[in-house]
Amino acid sequence: MGSADIVPGVSGGTVALVLGIYKRLISNVRQGARALKLLVTGKFSDGIAALVAIDWLFIIPLGLGVVGAFALLRHPMQDLLVDHAEGTAAVFSGLVIASCLLVTRQITDWGPKTLGALVGVAVLAFYLLGFQAGASADPAIWMFALTGSIAICAMILPGISGSFIMLMLGMYAAVLGGSISELAVFLVGAVIGLALFSSVLNHLLENYEQVVLGALLGLMVGSFRVLWPWPNGVGFISDEANETVVGTGLEMPSFGEFIGGAGLAAIAVVVTLLIVRLAEAKPVTDSDSSEPSHV
C-alpha cells in the first residue's frame, strides 16, 4: 500500500482490495476516528475503550509497512522527477486516466447535478492550477500539516490517491524530500485530517454519492493542467534545491516526447486496470464480510 500511495493516480485502497483487507482497514479507521473524537470531547473512559477496541495487531504492522515503503521509495521517486520528468509525468497521466475510467464506471446517475459537479470542478481545478508556480522548493512547516490533512482524505475517497492531492498542491516533491521533522508534522496533519473528515466524507458518499463521484471525476480531469504537457513534467525541485521547474505550461511537447509519453501512459492505464480486475475477481472472504464505506 505504501508503494502504491507514493505514486499519484494509484490508490493504496486498490492494493488493500487485492489483498482482501480493505473492509477491515476502513472499519479500523472509523473506530480510530471515533476514539479520537471521544477523547477530544472529554469522554476519556469511552475514548480509551474505543482505542482498545481497535485491531492494533492489524493496524501496527500495516502502518509500519506503509511508512517503510515510503522511506525506501521516496528518494528514487525524487530522482525520477529530476532526471526523467517527462516520462514520469506521462506515467502519472496514464494512472489518472485509469482512475477516471474507474470512477466513470461507478457513476450511474448522469443527471444535471452530477454533470454540473463534474464540469464545474473540472473548470475550477484547471483554472486554479494555472496559478501554481510549480513544486514548492521551501514550503512553510504548516503546509506539511495542511497537505497531510487533505491528502489522507484520499484514502477513504474512491479512485483517488493521496500523492495525487500532493501533486495538485505543489507539495509532492517537498514531501518526498522532507526532513524527519517535516514528515512528522505531515503525519500529525494526516491523523488530524482523518479524524476530522472521515465521518463527513462517509456521510457525503452515503447520501450524495453520485454528485461526489462527479466532482471527483471533475477534479481528476482538471488536474491534467499539471500533468500535460510533458516538457516540464509535473514540476520538480532541481538538485541544487533552489531552482523550481514548473509543470503547468500549455505548450505542446515535441513529436518524439509525445509518442514516447503516450506509450508510457498507455502502459500505466493497462497495468492499473489489470490490478483492479484482479481485485474484482478476488472472492469475498470472512474478513471482508462487514459492509464498508463506498469504494
Description:
- The chain has 295 residues and is mainly α.
- It has one domain.
- 68% of the residues lie in helices and 1% in strands.
- It contains 13 helices and two strands, in the order H-H-H-H-H-H-H-H-H-H-H-H-E-E-H.
- It has helices spanning 2-5, 12-19, 22-40, 44-52, 56-83, 85-106, 112-129, 141-151, 162-168, 172-176, 180-207, 209-222, 255-281, and strands at residues 236-237, 244-245.
- Strands 1-2 form a two-stranded antiparallel sheet.
- A hairpin with a 6-residue loop joins strand 1 (236-237) and strand 2 (244-245).
- Helix 2 (12-19) packs parallel to helix 13.
- The two termini are 16 Å apart.
Task: Kindly summarize this structure in a few lines.
The chain has helices spanning 2-5, 12-19, 22-40, 44-52, 56-83, 85-106, 112-129, 141-151, 162-168, 172-176, 180-207, 209-222, 255-281, and strands at residues 236-237, 244-245. With 295 residues, it is mostly helical.
Total of domains: 1
Mean pLDDT across all amino acids: 77
**Gross geometry:** globular
| Helix fraction by DSSP (H/I, runs of at least 4) | 55-70%
Q: Please state the structural category.
A: mainly alpha
Strand-residue proportion: under 5%
* Count of runs of 4 or more consecutive helical residues: 13
Poorly predicted regions? 286-295
Biggest sheet details: 2 strands, antiparallel
Note the run of SSEs as H and E: HHHHHHHHHHHHEEH
Strands, count: 2
